Amino acid sequence: MKSVRKLSGILAAIMLFAFASGCQKTENTSSVDRTGSTPTINPIQVAALKGPTALGMLNLMNSDKETENYEFTIKSKPDEVVALLTSKSADIAAVPTNLAATLYNKNSSVKLLALNTLGVLYVLEKGDTIQSVKDLKGKTIYSTGQGAVPEYALNYVLEQNGLTVGKDVTVEYKTEHTELAALMAADKASVAVLPQPFVTTVTSANADVRVALDLTKEWENVNHTTLTMGCLVVRTEFLENNQPAVEQFLSAYKESAKKAVSDVEGTAKLAEEFDIIKEAVAKKAIPACNIVYIDGQDMKTKAIGFFNVLHQANPKSIGGKMPDENLYYINK
User: What pLDDT sits at residue 185?
Assistant: First the structure.
């Protein structure tokens, strides 16, 4: 009970991180100034999800050296960002990587600009018995994200290690990260798959819970591709009419992402300021959030490898088919 009470206090501070829809600040638009060689009549509209995919742009959002070229909107759910893109209320967006393929396969309305977040999924254990994936045999794993990347990633890693879900391993899914985190604290779940920052939330609240496996590393061990959870996309029409401005944004975003990694304390403060996540949790979670900036041919290679695995697991996860070459934006 002591762990539950301790955990509930932390969860109360960040439970809007991934799923909340009622936070006023989330729905507001944040403006940031930016100078550049390509003037635009209206600010470029940039959308992001309230989570790891937004962390890389925090320093850009906070920049005080620029002039109103960008307006940022932070949303809680992927479908809210999709609505902004389809209504042309957003020009550029940070979204789950598989969503880029889904949107493209629907009507070629977006292009993939860069990968910005690698895997953020971890296996947590209350105890010290899990040292490898094979040690999960015979166990019940609690997870979130059924029908989405977390399920496909977990199943793939298990299968590649000779474990079959339903036979060798039992997986039970919960709707919300907060629910699963509370179960671990209450000794009702001993093994769980959770994303950051909920990993940090649980391990900070309960010293008996540890990170047993990094699913990103386990994915790479069996596939030699990269588990990519987040990316930047642009509306195809906007790119065709504003390519220099898009290039300018990418350059600024790249520097912002680098600073997120190199200046964790400063970025953690911004995470709370922009209502993404509380500073104390962000400070511990950011180093494990795999914030990156990968574009060009390397982006394409990593994305194709990721999409191939998802397509084999469930074609619907990427819109029914492998996207063609035109999804990928590579400035030659």
Answer: 76
